[in-house]
Design brief:
Length: about 190
């Protein structure tokens, strides 16, 4: 959630850096910044509370990176002048970006390959074929059971928090249109 003041304000990629900052914060601490079990209170914290860092989790360099990425003022946010700002932060010292782009950096965790399943293929003279099992769209084997056992629930939305565009969209509730199909250009 980013507060945007003034008509025609451009968020550009700065909102992406905010999102990356929240993701990094959560990956390191286990909870998102400004977390609260009460969703409304969490939104209020995002808008007005100071960002809190636990010293036993965040070192000074990491805290500096996250403070700058989670700056509420878009014009002052790290990355608002391009990715080079983020890449040159001391948090990334020692990282060779050319190697990253060339995919030469070995990640600290590489998921183990899926199991290999030997299959007897009678059509090919009883030979054994090895099939490497691939993850399906529903594969959740790398997700913690805590999350896969949860029942999915829609997030409640307070209508007073909706912007003017979302509020205007309710004017068309129930509207349908079934026109003739236009030919597809080749």
């Amino acid at each position: 959630m980013v507060m945007c003041r003034g008509a025609g304000a451009l968020l550009s990629q700065a909102v992406d850096w905010w999102s990356l900052g929240t993701l990094l914060y959560e990956m390191l601490s286990g909870l998102p910044p400004y977390y609260d079990t009460n969703m409304q209170r969490m939104y209020e914290k995002i808008m007005s509370e100071p960002l809190v860092f636990k010293k036993h989790i965040f070192d000074d360099v990491t805290e500096d990176l996250l403070r700058k990425m989670l700056e509420r003022d878009v014009s002052k946010r790290l990355g608002s002048n391009g990715a080079k700002e983020i890449k040159s932060h001391p948090f990334f010292d020692g990282l060779n970006w050319d190697d990253v782009y060339a995919r030469l950096v070995v990640p600290e965790f590489v998921p183990p390959k899926r199991y290999v399943l030997p299959v007897l293929c009678e059509a090919l003279c009883d030979c054994i074929l090895t099939l490497r099992c691939r993850a399906s769209e529903t594969d959740v084997s790398y997700f913690d059971k805590e999350f896969t056992r949860q029942r999915p629930v829609d997030t409640p939305v307070n209508p007073s928090l909706l912007g003017t565009t979302a509020a205007a969209a309710t004017h068309f509730e129930g509207f349908t249109y079934a026109g003739e199909a236009a030919p597809i250009a080749q």
